[in-house]
Design goal:
This protein is an alpha+beta fold. The chain has helices spanning about 5-25, 35-50, 120-135, 145-155; strands at about 55, 65-70, 75, 90-100, 105-110, 160, 170, 175-180, 200, 205, 210-215, 220-225, 230, 235-240, 240-245. The chain is about 25% helix and about 25% strand. One magnesium ion (MG) binds next to loops.
Amino acid sequence: MIYYKTAEQIELMRIAGRVVHNTLNMLEAWIKPGTTTKKLDTLAEEYIRSHDAVPSFKGYNGFIATLCVSRNEEVVHGIPSDNVFLHDGDIVSIDCGAFIHGYHGDHARTYAVGNISPDKQNLMDVTKRCLALGIEKAYPGNHLSDIGHAIQTYAESQGYSVVRDLVGHGIGQRLHEDPQVPNYGKMGRGIILKEGLVIAIEPMVNMGKAGVSTVSDGWTIVTHDRKPSAHFEHTLAITKEGPVILTNGK
Ligand code: MG
Ligand code: MG
């Protein structure tokens, strides 16, 4: 069931969106060789709680942390650890959720650690562009699959593949609501987008093939071929005027 939001509810969701945006901004100074992924997680949890919000992911289906921190061939859902250090040349995806005033915000960015190879930089640039192209399709009257079609078409035109096993989602009082928002598909399929729909669009783009699997910790998703993957996510509302991003700090 899809819960369409009123303008007032969307304004409340902007507060959650701002918290996650500012959390990631705060972490940027720590994205450097030698930082542990647990350090990032501790900083994020402190920041979120000090802004009267609650980490959305901690306790979600038993997940133990505030952030998902996923490096290189890790696609998403990496568990922060004292034993995992950021290294020069890594790319690292940081996914953050926060809950405040009854609503969730969900936002992810992939960062370069130190100096990265041109091919990793291009993967990140293309994935970020995929997110922007998906958001451009989030207008009332378009079909849901127009979003995924735009993402897939661009990613594949650049020689990359999109992950199919994980998708974006509706978001509101619950972190994951209907509908699912795939990053692939034909145009003109799925529901017609309507004013009040709030979704998280989150392309996961692989340098190699699309296949992924879960490692033995039960959470971390990695590419089958162990080639790098990047991930960007925004929470956005569909309004009469078009998409309004709630996790861009405005
Ligand atoms: Mg997320
Ligand atoms: Mg999400």
